[in-house]
Specification:
The chain is of the alpha+beta class. Among the domains are: 110 residues, Alpha-Beta Plaits (2-Layer Sandwich); 67 residues, no CATH class. The strands form three sheets. Strands 1, 2, 3, 4, 5, 6, 7, 8, 13 and 14 form a ten-stranded mixed β-sheet that branches. The chain has a two-stranded antiparallel sheet with strand order 9-10. The chain is globular. The N and C termini lie close together (6 Å). The model has no long low-confidence stretch (mean pLDDT 92).
């Protein structure tokens, strides 16, 4: 199975809630111009940064509601604080890999709660006939209601995109951070090469992997930019804590969120492991097995359940308390230990996440011959809507892909 053979194989469109729909009239007072940002093969951070520079505004003036996949063709909303009351922002702006079109105004900058849903149109390629049969079987198990119903119920795991900062599948930087092991955490974040590295990140990881400890030599190898910060701190004689703090803050927070997401997934799988095996299917991943119950095995209690992102303020309670305690204990941790010594941030913040997600407006076309794969291989086209925070790649995992 292959997704994202081309960016056009993975289309994402962000849908805002009615309350956050941009207005045609510019509001009085603070005004935020809202653009639809279309990007290809760029992260949201990179595209939003380039967008801000094209308008001559600082990155802090640009806001967005969510992060979208890099290896895809995505459309999302960005807002920019427009303080020049006597001027009008340009109707459109673009550069390599992105373009932005003005669609209206808001009185406040965009936030995550502005997203109502995301619509997806995916082409799943390089399938065998057996793969298609398995997908059809799983589709039937996830279906809610009558056969004509076009919704699917699946476990709301975090997708592997959430673990983009993880360089080793079994080792998380934040697990070392909570133990005060700043050197090992930093090495995992900047000293372990990955096949998807590019640009400055590629230069950084390869230089660090080959010359760890010779900080002055590594600094000389790196181009100007934010990634030099940790190495410059070490070359100046500072400790590994200071070097970690010199990382771009978003990278620090990603490291914590990746570990929290893994803990959430492990708690969910542990809980769902209590459902009889005849009513579940298991999909192995690089970050552990994901358990997907049939829709008929999920009672209303399961469907209404929320699990927390584990934090030092979390107090275990049933039905998830024992599972969470066990997951932490397996890593030698407790709830209270989820803090980073001598650092106020990044921090482990508690937030509740629904255990179950509902994909709506689901449709599949195919199978058809896959023109981009070897003879005999098939492709399937899928369309669906997901609520904010749910991952299309997890739905594909639930379907056996």
């Amino acid at each position: 199975m292959t997704i994202r053979r081309t960016p056009q194989d993975f289309l994402v469109n962000e849908v805002l809630t009615e309350a956050w729909t941009p207005r045609a009239e510019r509001p009085e007072g603070d005004a935020h111009a809202v653009y639809v940002l279309e990007k290809t093969s760029l992260t949201t951070l990179d595209a939003a940064g380039a967008f801000g520079r094209s308008l001559g505004v600082r990155a802090s003036k640009v806001s967005y509601a969510g992060l979208k996949d890099k290896h895809a063709l995505t459309r999302q909303h960005v807002s920019v604080a427009w303080e020049k009351a006597t001027t009008t922002p340009p109707p459109a702006t673009e550069s390599k890999g992105w373009k932005a079109t003005l669609v209206g105004w808001l009185a406040e900058p965009l936030v995550a709660e502005a997203i109502a849903a995301n619509s997806f149109h995916l082409v799943i390629r390089d399938l065998s006939r057996k793969d298609v049969t398995e997908m059809q079987k799983r589709f039937a198990r996830l279906r809610d209601g009558e056969p004509r119903d076009n919704s699917l119920t699946f476990v709301n795991y975090f997708g592997e995109q959430r673990f983009a900062s993880v360089r080793s599948k079994s080792d998380f930087a934040a697990q070392h951070l909570v133990r005060g092991e700043f050197e090992e955490a930093l090495r995992l974040l900047i000293g372990v090469p990955h096949r998807k590295d590019s640009g400055a990140r590629r230069a950084l990881t390869r230089a660090c992997a080959g010359h760890w400890g010779d900080w002055g030599a590594i600094v000389k190898m790196l181009p100007p930019g934010a990634w030099r910060g940790p190495l410059e701190q070490l070359a100046a004689g500072k400790d590994f804590k200071a070097a970690f703090e010199a990382l771009p803050y978003v990278e620090q927070q990603f490291a914590v969120e990746a570990f929290q997401s893994q803990l959430w997934n492990e708690c969910a799988a542990a809980l769902l492991g209590t459902i009889p095996k005849a009513d579940t299917l298991v999909t192995p991943t690089d970050f552990g097995d994901l358990i997907f119950p049939a829709a008929t095995a999920l009672s209303q209690r399961w469907r209404e359940m929320e699990l927390p992102m584990l934090a030092p303020t979390t107090r275990p309670r049933e039905p998830w308390g024992k599972a969470a305690t066990k997951v932490l204990a397996a890593r030698g941790l407790t709830f209270d230990s989820l803090t980073i010594p001598r650092l106020r941030r990044p921090a482990f913040g508690e937030a509740m996440r629904p255990l179950v997600a509902l994909a709506t407006e689901v449709s599949f076309e195919g199978p058809d011959q896959d023109e981009l794969s070897r003879p005999g291989r098939l492709k399937v086209s899928a369309k669906f809507m997901l609520p904010r925070g749910a991952y299309a790649t997890v739905l594909l995992r639930a379907l056996g892909q």
